Amino acid sequence: MVEYEIKPVAKLGFGVDELWRYRELFYFYTWRDIKVRYKQTFFGFAWAVMQPILMMVLFTFFFGKKLGVPSDSMPYPIFVFTGLLMWNIFSTGLTSASNSIINNAHIIKKIYFPRLIIPLSSVMVTLFDFLMALTIYIVLMLYYAVDINILEVVGALIIALIITSLTTFGLGTFLAALNIKYRDFKYVIPYTIQVLLFVSPVIYPVSIVTNVWAKYLLAINPLSGAITLMRSAISDVPPDWNMVLISAVCAVIYFIGGVLYFKSSESYFADIV
Amino acid sequence: MANILEIHNISKLFKIHHNAGGYLSLRERLSGLYKNRKSSDEDFWAVKDVTFSVEPGESKAIIGRNGSGKSTLLKILSKITPPTKGRIITRGRMASLLEVGTGFHPELTGTENIFFNGSLLGMTKKEIENKFDEIVDFSGVEKFLDTPLKHYSSGMQLRLAFSVAAFLDSEILVIDEVLAVGDMDFQKKCLDKIETVTKSGRTILFVSHNMAAIRALCSSVLVLDKGQVRYHGDVTHGIDHYMSISSSFEEQPGVFNLEQHPSKKNKKSGLVEARLIRDGKPNYLFFPGGPFKGEFDFAGMTPDAEVGFRLVIKDSYFQSMVNITNHDLGLRLQANKGGSGTVVFEMDVLPVYGDGTYYIDVQFGDEAKYKDTIENALSFKLEPKDVFGTGKFLNPKINTVFPGKVNINVQ
Question: How many Cβ atoms from other residues are within 10 Å of residue B15's Cβ?
Fold first, then answer.
């Protein structure tokens, strides 16, 4: 027999055991979000594939060809696509996670479940998009006949993916909770993401920053570490492990901070949403 | 046996921000740091010090006017919102149905929606798979399972939604007014289903304005008013108590303010006030077989609109005794140039007999469509009368209709 108590203030924590009990709902939430996403958009799967390709073509033309931005001795399309792989997880994931609670307001007001499931599943949808883009990435690698050590690339990819996902999820949950309380955040988020694109080494290599401290400052944005790591795996340039470490630590901090803030305010979502 | 659900001193406080337009903005918050914010906040106890317990197998109705705290109490019980004070102990798996079809998505097919909705309601994938055929069978939409929900009629969506909910297997079930929807046939089917669930020994908390359903389904009643428990006990007394609170809006006996009535959905237009008239004055006492007159003021309709009106008289068991529309009489009703007017309903002979309280439902709206459906809008009492003028009274327990003129003789 299940016996539990409902009390005014829940204890602060990640609520991992509760999340585990609701794992099936998490599965269904993600499953539904993916289905809806690919049913609603006109091109469906094609869109997930086209979007990074279009960005890659544009960036290659303007930054690679016209402006001659250095690309760590890789073909610029490969170089920029590597950055875009991580960047798209971050930008799409952050946008959808931060709006996810508001978008699910009608459900939140009617049924209880751990609210963390909602932003978590919207990040999962983005990771699904990532898998689509990854196939293009592999095709590109084959086309440019990039000489790589598969094991090294897979390892770097996994670490970069973890860093990016933790960051996206942490900031996404943080913003989702803020978004409910302060509705003007909705307008700030797209703008911030635009600015962040230029602060992240997506279209340019980290190597253009020569000052070590500036480089470490850049690594506070965990995407820097993630993208740098990925790029060094497919080029001869060894990774700057300090940068990767700083990025990884920051990602964990953002993750814990974001989730804790979310958990501390989640019980009142239904009252203010 | 231990109580399956214990509610101890539950209270819920809301802070009302008077100057903010609903949501806070960060700008307001930052500028507010310099101001004294206390002055614009007001405390509002939506639920105050509510204590009660529920035994296993009990089905309890929670009734109260709009704003009495029912919904907040249900939300606290469903864990959707935390209480400010107090605690609740539950000893069983609890599922709450504050709405049917939560999370239904128009782009998803019937099957997909069954799985997602079922999962939201707390069913496991396995449970849904096991009950899938029953759910589909009950809903009657098996032909459209692979069709996106957006192509369903609203009735079909509703049937599907209720069907998923109907197969919830929790020990405690919290239901909020989900029956107030659907066509008559399906409502009946739903009520029957809930009755079976009640009989199966499950514990049910039921919030509704439908007194007949409460009489049929529930074994006890909790009456809430202004966030506090006003009555807790058997059904008949509970409903009487609720009715006495409901009609406390009356400024004088026989006058009913309908704008504030709990079951009036459309607050902007339609019926405003009603009066029961005897001897030219508002009254709440009538005689079996005597004249009966009601006046119903309405406003906010289209100028010169043709309107429709239905009046239902029910006995204290909510059994319908009279159910008449102006269409039945072949009469046309029209609003005046200002979109308002008064519907006057007159009967020469009130055809009911008894000694209890009678309730009146009214429906009102544009020609074919009734915008207002107000249940238990008015009430009156019947005064006993020697209907045959013999000084002898008919027994109200076995006579419910006014018999008219009766003659018995031997020929």
Answer: 10
**Is A10 near chain B, with CB under 8 Å?**
yes
CA B329 to chain centre: 29
> How confident is residue B65, by pLDDT bands cut at 50, 70 and 90?
confident
Number of residue pairs across A and B with CB atoms under 8 Å? Answer: 109
Helix (H, G, I), strand (E, B) or coil at B294: strand
Residue type, A83: G
Give residues 168 to 187 of A whose Cβ lies within 8 Å of B: 181-185
Give me the count of residues in chain B. Answer: 411
Beta strands per DSSP E along A62-217: none
Query: Which of A5, A11, A25 is best to mutate for the B interface (most B CBs within 10 A)?
Result: A25
The residue among B37 and B86 whose pLDDT is bigger is: B86
Dmax (CA) of chain B: 98
- Residue B107 DSSP label: T
Chain A environment of B17 (Cβ under 8 Å)? none
What's the CA gap between B340 and B304, in Å, rounded? 9
Question: Among B140, B152, B147, B145, which residue's Cα sits nearest to residue B189?
Answer: B140
> Is the C-alpha dihedral spanning B47, B51, B55, B60 positive or negative?
negative
pLDDT in tens, A13-37: 777 888 898 999 999 999 999 888 8
Cα(B205)–Cα(A134) distance, integer angstroms: 51
Q: Do residues B371 and B364 make contact, with C-beta atoms less than 8 angstroms apart? A: yes
Alpha-carbon span A111 to B74, nearest angstrom:
11
Q: From the CA atom positions of chain A, what is the Rg in Å?
A: 20
Domains of chain B and CATH, by start: 5-244 (3.40.50.300), 254-382 (2.70.50.60)
Residue A130 Cα distances to A81, A123, A124, B313, angstroms: 12, 10, 10, 65
ipTM at complex level: 0.86
Of A6, A106, A110, the CB nearest to B87: A6
> In terms of Cα–Cα distance, which of A42, A30, A178, A26 is closest to A101?
A178
Instruction: Tell me the whole-structure pTM to 2 decimals.
Output: 0.75
User: Residues A181, A182, A185, CA angle at the centre, nearest 5°?
Assistant: 130
DSSP string, B41-65: EEEEEEEEEEEEEE-TT-EEEEE--
